TrEMBL record:
SUPFAM superfamilies: Metallo-dependent phosphatases (SSF56300). One of its GO terms (biological process) is lipid A biosynthetic process. Pfam families: Metallophos. It comes from the Bacteria. Keywords: Cell inner membrane, Cell membrane, Hydrolase, Manganese, Membrane, Metal-binding. GO terms for cellular component: membrane. Residues 1-208 form the Calcineurin-like phosphoesterase domain. This is UDP-2,3-diacylglucosamine diphosphatase. GO terms for molecular function: metal ion binding; UDP-2,3-diacylglucosamine hydrolase activity. Transmembrane segments: none annotated.
Amino acid sequence: MPIFFASDFHLGTDARTSSREREREVVRWLDHCVSEGADAIYLVGDLFDFWFEWRHAVPRGHVRFLGKLAEITDGGTPIHVFTGNHDLWMQDYLPRETGVTLHYQPVVHELQGRKLLIGHGDGLGPGDYGYKRMKKVMDAPWAKWLYARLHPNLAMRLALFFSHKSREGQPSEAEFNGPDREWLVAYSERRVAQDPSIDYCIFGHRHLPIDYRLSNGNSRYINLGEWLNYCTYLRLENGEASLLRWDDTVAVPLYRGGAANLAINRES
């Protein structure tokens, strides 16, 4: 039975399509996973462009997505959700209301006879020290307490403003920068050197679908891409991982061992 992985839906912000239309596509993809007999579904961070849980309120919208999560878990299919840098303030709302299992840190799971290291990917590897310092502050209980004192209207407006500004300041994500400049490749190399039995290092965050064979010749670093433009995901079946595209309207770079290949498998 296949296992599916996806990340970086960024629901709440418009891109190639509106957030509402992207939410409908995500729901159709989740239905597809169930129809294929999914053994489990892993949603690996940045599901929302911003998320915060006040004591008696959560951000409005996303009802189709949240309802589908509850429907799938009620049907017996486990869903694992990882926090990302845009929704790191998830607490107990999703587990309690939709039945998902929530992860705050990368995990190692053994699935279909393979060992997988799975995480969102923010703040891992060398570099990005400014974000790492900021994340320590944002993870502090006092920071969450102070932010919860803001009225949700102001808090959401501020968060979405800075979320959009952070994307404007980022360099182009459309090119593979080589193993020496890809922080998650470096992180994966280090983890595999510590544990050579890891078969797949699966992350999001990078926004570029990548399938890169690591230096030991066996393990692979796979980035899930995103749904703002690429709509890519991973299917694990019989221990073999395949990067696929749900939407066939965009040419997707797929990197294998550093070589670009514009052909990507597709399911629809």
